[in-house]
Amino acid sequence: MSFTMGIDVGSTYTKAVILHEGGRIVSAGIVRTGFRLPEAAAQARDQALAQIGLSGDDIAYTASTGFGRYQVPFTDVSVTDLTAQSRGARFFFPETRTVLDVGGQTMKASRLDGGGKIRSFRLNDKCAAGTGAFLEKTAYYMGYSIEEIGPLIMTSKDQVPISSVCAVFAESEVINHVSTGCAPADIMHGAVASLVDRSVQLMKRVQMEPQFTLVGGIMRFETMIRVVREKLGHEVNVPPDEMAQFTAALGAAVLAYGRLLKLPKDDELLEASDARPTPAQAE
Asked: Across-strand partners of 63?
């Protein structure tokens, strides 16, 4: 049996996914990244291994991705997060042509060709207003944790508009809305809508086309998915069972399996060794 692993060292969370024979997800692990990236990668790996009773020696090939991919000491290959996300998205939805990835610190949109190769991509401006961190800060100012964002938004009756394109000014808007008595759920709804507006603009810049697949930790929030769907006026794909947060790690595991298949087998190495002339034969 062949097990491959993908490690996604993201700015907020580090994820690990284990695949069996390149086609079945058997385990996943997730930890806070923090400042010690190699340790976070090892913890996510160990968490995923423990779930199915495997050891590191049982993993035939490992691929790392994410901004900290070069800090994973036990990886066999490193790949970009754009490539990993595209593979992960197409694992679930083979007809995907546009991928929107909204994480804690970054937002990315990419357009794929029929074979899954990236033809165009754009990243958000260097501002937290275009990332999940903006939602976390908005929740913080109102006294909520990031885990409470989803349930909070679900109680919203309307959305309070947040128009600023800068995180600093947007936070000032949030504080002003709180002081005037706006409902926290409606403010949070407005923050999501603001984030979606930036998402759709990014998708337009890559000349988006269906099918659309949404990935990244922020896609855990159903309201985010719904508002993106409304803005696009089109159905969207979302990986099942909260796997949207693990898509890059999954894609890395898929790529690891592809690399594994290209490695020469033991019998092939033996045949190549037998075919080499001995020093006597060479003379």
From this structure: 6, 77
